[in-house]
Amino acid sequence: MKPIQRIRVAGALLCIVPALFLAARPGFAQAAGTKQDEKAKPVEATAKNPAEKPVEIPLTGITSANSARVIQAVAAIEHSVYRCTSCSKVKSEKGQCCGKDTLAEKQEVADDVQANADARSLSLTIRAGRSLRLSDLESALKPLEVRVDRDKLMLPAHFELTLAGLPSSASATELEKAIKEGGTIEPLASEFDEGAKHLAVRLHAKSAPATYQKVAELVTKAKASARIEDVTWVGPCPDCRAKGMKQAGCPKCWPEGTTRN
Ligand SMILES: [Zn+2]
Ligand SMILES: [Zn+2]
Hints:
The chain is an alpha+beta fold.
């Protein structure tokens, strides 16, 4: 029995691998085309390169009376990034680089902001190369007494978590390993901030997109002291935006300069 099963698996792989290459080919052909072509003819999305969807945020406290103000507040969100004046590297948290304090910069984040009071939700597109933090979204909505409904919040296929409650980089490594072993989300890259004691970790959902609650549970289960400090939705890079999808493994699909190990 066993050898036959192995042969079958190998056979299946041999079929899948060329299929993936074939599926990827049109994307690469398009990449060589002109920018006008890319805009006119979007590449067909595949399982590997899912089409980009607007970010959907469930809300509480949204009404037909305040939805215009909700849209206004969200469209006005600016993302703070911290640029090193020496090497120009951009970091998501305040700190030091090249032995000096980094300089704060503000960037607009959201496009196509729409609110639906009946569905109690908000949808938006994140600008190419920008990112949106849950904490910034919540601060923008707070004066309107509107809140993100975390119980219903779905996380996208690719996202970044800032995790707190980690005393050392060793505890951060342990947590990352436990998340990986949890099986539903996979850490792609991470960076431990020694000053803030925060672990920033880029993740992707291995099958179905995860709910915020499921991920929060997974983090606490992996390490009792750990908790989600923030969630970041990351916009595609300009190339992927032009194609209407985040391409699998695209190294540019993360905020400029936040290259992680
Ligand atoms: Zn620097
Ligand atoms: Zn990209």
